[in-house]
């Protein structure tokens, strides 16, 4: 008498996990905050800078903690560098708000508190998405943006190796 | 086409000999509906009767010959004019003449070769059918009857597991393993994913089964990809050293056996796609081909009525007989 064959669904053998791996801190910690907007300068030469603070345990970043000040055009520079050199699809930046820069506005234009807050949120989202991308992490421009005091626009573009 | 009141016309239909007992299976039609057809295997005889029924009994019915054909053909949807016939048999039932009353003709196509499985896909169709034809001066009267053919295989002698280490340098390294490379249609994929290095934030992992139908040759090759199944195997972020098991039952999905370069016209291949998705919706994937094959049904050892019919059914087909014998052995 034959019965239908029962499929063998036993799990494949695997190594038991090391407890230090199981309970250790995850090796993918990466947090970037964009906060503390400050408007610098006077009159028509004013601009806003934001503090970009990074904390990470990824070995590809030389500094495990860094803190720099960046303005919107620095973010634009980073976006352009990545679009040119890396293979990633770069996420969008918050808008340029050209209309807000026209004269004869009733409000503060680009220095309006609510606008700055909206922009701050968009920039934070942007930088977190990029910095977490394995292909963007290889780019010198990203490391310079996050971890060097100022951006050298005459730098030599290239890749970072561990 | 019949001419109202003018002369004589007839209807023609085909009936298989074992129509009462023969197994029927569901098969998708071109417009997506499912219909039932008689099931045949390679080497099986196709026999039956052709009934010619006169519309006006007593009146003369002239014809230029009555025949029945058994045809296996491949149709490419983008080239409908050309049917590629790989099996074409014909039996003449009546020479040109006349009928005065309805008549039935017997036919038998003995031990017909049916080398490929019936297939209805996105850009190509492979079908087998009987076509009875009454030739006439102005217009022929024809009737077609589709049948479905399944190709059976036995357990392959060589069926190694698939085991590989893949990853993105310094970001993600995994080792995946699937227990076999060849699975039958009611089999289970047993495997595991072992995480060697995890430096990205994974949200979940799934395994997809992708069917790829390839038609055409040379520069005019079309690939149609269809995701047959998506099965989540992990929800949450893994760390180094974790093993995630895979147990995917294939019987629940509509699949065909792997078909490679059928009559040099088309292929149907299946791939397992392992997909990891991180918190930014970025997808990391690894595709691996698997071979699917169709196993013959298990037959009970006792010589019951069913077994007697089943063994008759496989008469004349070496592969099918081997498949039956193997299935019997395995089930012991």
Describe the structure.
The complex is a heterodimer of chains A (162) and B (332). With 162 residues, chain A is α+β, with helices and mostly antiparallel strands. Chain A has one domain (27-147): Phox-like domain (PX Domain), CATH 3.30.1520. Chain A is built from four helices and three strands. Chain A has helices spanning 19-23, 72-85, 113-131, 140-147; strands spanning 30-40, 47-56, 65-71. Chain A has a three-stranded antiparallel beta sheet with strand order 1-2-3. In chain A, a hairpin with a 6-residue loop joins β1 (30-40) and β2. Chain A starts with 18 loop residues before the first helix and ends in a 15-residue tail after the last helix. Chain B is mainly β and 332 residues long. Chain B has two domains: 10-149, Immunoglobulin-like (Sandwich); 162-293, Immunoglobulin-like (Sandwich), CATH 2.60.40.640. Chain B has two helices and 22 strands. Chain B has helices at residues 305-313, 318-330, and strands spanning 10-16, 24-28, 34-40, 46-54, 61-63, 66-76, 83-94, 97-99, 103-109, 119-120, 124-134, 141-149, 162-168, 172-178, 182-184, 188-198, 202-215, 222-235, 243-249, 259-262, 266-278, 283-293. In chain B, strands 2, 3, 6, 7, 10, 11 and 12 form a seven-stranded mixed beta sheet that branches. In chain B, strands 15, 17, 18, 20, 21 and 22 form a six-stranded mixed beta sheet that branches. In chain B, a hairpin with a 5-residue loop joins β2 and β3. Chain B is elongated. The chains are: A alpha+beta (162), B mainly beta (332).
């Amino acid at each position: 008498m034959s019965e239908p064959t029962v499929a063998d669904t036993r799990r494949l053998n695997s190594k038991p996990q090391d407890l230090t791996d199981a309970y250790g801190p995850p090796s993918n910690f990466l947090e970037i905050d964009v906060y503390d907007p400050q408007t610098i300068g006077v009159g028509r030469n004013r601009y806003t800078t934001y503090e970009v603070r990074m904390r990470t345990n990824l070995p590809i970043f030389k500094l495990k903690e860094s803190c720099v000040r960046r303005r919107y055009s620095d973010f634009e520079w980073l976006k352009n560098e990545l679009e040119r050199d890396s293979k990633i699809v770069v996420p969008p930046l918050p808008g340029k708000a050209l209309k807000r820069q026209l004269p004869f506005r009733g409000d503060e234009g680009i220095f309006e508190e609510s606008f700055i807050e909206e922009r701050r949120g968009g920039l934070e989202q942007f930088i977190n998405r990029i910095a977490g991308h394995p292909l963007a992490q290889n780019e010198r421009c990203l490391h310079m943006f996050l971890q060097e005091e100022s951006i050298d626009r005459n730098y030599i573009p290239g890749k970072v190796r561990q | 086409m019949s001419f109202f009141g003018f002369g004589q016309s007839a209807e023609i239909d085909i009936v298989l000999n074992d129509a009462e007992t023969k197994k029927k299976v569901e098969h998708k039609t071109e417009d997506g509906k499912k219909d039932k057809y008689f099931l045949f295997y390679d080497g099986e005889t196709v026999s039956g009767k052709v009934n010619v029924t006169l519309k006006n009994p007593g009146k003369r019915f002239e014809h230029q010959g009555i025949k029945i054909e058994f045809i296996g053909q491949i149709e490419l949807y983008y080239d409908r004019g050309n049917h590629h016939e790989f099996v074409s048999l014909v039996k003449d039932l009546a020479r040109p003449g006349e009928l005065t009353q309805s008549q039935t003709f017997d036919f038998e196509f003995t031990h017909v070769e049916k080398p490929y499985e019936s297939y209805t896909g996105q850009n190509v169709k492979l079908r087998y059918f009987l076509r009875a034809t009454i030739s006439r001066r102005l217009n022929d009267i024809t009737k077609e009857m589709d049948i479905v053919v399944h190709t059976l295989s036995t357990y392959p002698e060589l069926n190694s597991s698939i085991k590989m280490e893949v990853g993105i340098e310094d970001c993600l390294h995994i080792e995946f393993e699937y227990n076999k490379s060849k699975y039958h249609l009611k089999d289970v994929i047993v495997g595991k994913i072992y995480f060697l290095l995890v430096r990205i934030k994974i949200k979940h992992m799934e395994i997809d089964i992708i069917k790829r139908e390839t038609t055409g040759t040379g520069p005019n090759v079309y690939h149609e990809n269809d995701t047959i199944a998506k099965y989540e195997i992990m929800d949450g972020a893994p760390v180094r050293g974790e093993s995630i098991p895979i147990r995917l039952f294939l019987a629940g999905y509509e699949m065909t056996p792997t078909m490679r370069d059928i009559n040099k016209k088309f292929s149907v291949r299946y791939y397992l796609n392992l997909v990891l998705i991180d918190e930014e919706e970025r997808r990391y994937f690894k595709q691996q081909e698997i071979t699917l094959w169709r196993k013959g049904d298990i037959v009970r050892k006792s010589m019951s009525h069913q077994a007697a019919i089943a063994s008759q059914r496989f008469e004349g087909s070496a592969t099918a007989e081997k498949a039956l014998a193997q299935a019997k052995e395995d089930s012991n």
